[in-house]
Amino acid sequence: MNPEQHKKLSILWHNQLELIRWKLRERNDNSYSVQVVKPSLNISIIISCCSVIEGYLFTVIKDHLFIAGHKNNKENDNTQLLDRVLLDYSEQLENATWGRYLKIFETITGYSISKGIESNIFKAVAIMFQYRNQLAHGNEIEITFIENGGPGEIKPTSKYFKILKYGEEKKLIKVDYDNHNFDILTNQFIDHFYEKTKQFIIEVNEMFPPELRSILTADLFAIINDKKHL
């Protein structure tokens, strides 16, 4: 694998960002044909945001392996070993959980995302991945309410418990405990996660020293340094 090949493999997550922007523009069309599919658009935006983060982290992980292998190959012709390592981690990441992504990232780069970025951004992204995992199964969005003779509560074991509580804390969703109604796909909630996705990429990128950022292929797209474009 040469550097040019490596760069060409790193572009898909950037395309996902463009797709999210297009979905946001379409979602704001007030026509009936668009509004009737708005919940589906919002679901797809969450899934795409997670894909962007996974793709970005995958790119950075591959870059670190590639850079380390390139330095090593100056002294030893070990290209096949590097390719095997890249393939092994690629296969692991294809089916990795969010926690596994973080662990592999720290192992390869030496940087801890949970310690290196703002805690509110890290929490938001962790919640978003839980959200994505529930939505991706296509099951009904269901929660269990508990009546205690006073204001209702959500059963802590409900699959969406942490997600709903997070949305309530941020005042992005409202649960009607009296009538047992809720909307977990509000535009405000979805937009919040989109903004946190962009902030996450910026902060992770800024964890690295400038001399390293300049050679990471993820920096080719000029979207990390241009925060307005994000």
Low-confidence stretches: 1-10, 224-230
**How much β-strand is present in the residues?**
under 5%
Number of strand elements: 4
Mean pLDDT: 81
Kindly give the count of domains. Answer: 2
Series of secondary-structure elements, N-terminal to C-terminal:
HHHHHHHHEEHEEHH
User: What is the general shape?
Assistant: elongated
Count of helix runs: 11
Please bin the fraction of helical residues: 55-70%
Structural class: mainly alpha
First-residue to last-residue Cα separation: 30 Å
- State the major sheet: 2 strands, antiparallel
> Widest sheet: strand order?
1-2
Rg estimate, integer Å: 20 Å
Question: How would you summarize the topology of this molecule?
Answer:
Elements: H1 3-8, H2 12-27, H3 32-35, H4 38-73, H5 79-94, H6 98-109, H7 113-116, H8 119-136, E1 145-146, E2 153-154, H9 161-169, E3 175-176, E4 181-182, H10 187-207, H11 210-213
Helix pairs in contact: 2-4, 4-5, 4-6, 4-8, 4-10, 8-10
Q: What do these coordinates show?
A:
The chain folds into two domains: 145 residues; 59 residues, no CATH class. A hairpin with a 6-residue loop joins strand 1 and strand 2. The protein has a two-stranded antiparallel sheet. It has a two-stranded antiparallel ribbon with strand order 3-4. The protein starts with a helix and ends in a 17-residue tail after the last helix. Helix 4 runs parallel beside helix 6. It is elongated and about 65 Å long. The chain contains eleven helices and four strands; from the N terminus they run ααααααααββαββαα. The N terminus and C terminus are likely disordered. With 230 residues, the protein is mainly α.
